[in-house]
Design goal:
With about 140 residues, this protein is an all-alpha fold. The chain contains 6 helices and no strands. The protein has a domain of about 55 residues.
Length: about 140
């Protein structure tokens, strides 16, 4: 809102701090800065993700002693009956995680936001995939 109400510097500072707080959102900031660079034809917009990455690396250095240390090095989790539990790093297979995010009953995206999948059927029809061809 600060950016929209002519407080651009304050708005961008808050966005950079937000990205530093949630490092996974750096992808969105990079995309926004690329679009702004292409629209304005000014390279100064590329400073935004650089500043956010600088803050992320500085926080890692202060917390863990190295810019590349994120705190997940010695994280193993609890050992349960599940075959992927208790292993180092992110050992759970990506496909199982994706299925969990989409279909987990009561907390999956399919149950909370079924409208997200409405465009999938329409897009598949326009691509002409065999599953969605009309049965005449």
């Amino acid at each position: 809102m600060a950016i929209c109400h002519d407080r651009r510097v304050l708005g961008w500072i808050l966005i950079i701090l937000g990205v530093a707080n949630t490092p996974a959102s750096i992808v969105g900031l990079i995309l926004v800065s690329i679009v702004l660079t292409l629209q304005d034809r000014q390279l100064r917009n590329l400073i935004l993700p650089v500043a956010a990455v600088g803050l992320i690396l500085m926080e890692n250095t202060v917390r863990h002693g190295s810019p590349m240390a994120t705190g997940y090095i010695q994280e193993y989790g609890f050992k349960t009956v599940m075959p992927y539990s208790g292993l180092p790093g992110f050992s759970y297979p990506f496909l199982f995680g994706l299925i969990s995010i989409l279909f987990s009953f009561g907390k999956g995206l399919v149950w909370y936001f079924p409208g997200l999948l409405l465009g999938v059927r329409k897009e598949m029809k326009t691509l002409g995939t065999p599953f969605f061809r009309s049965q005449r």
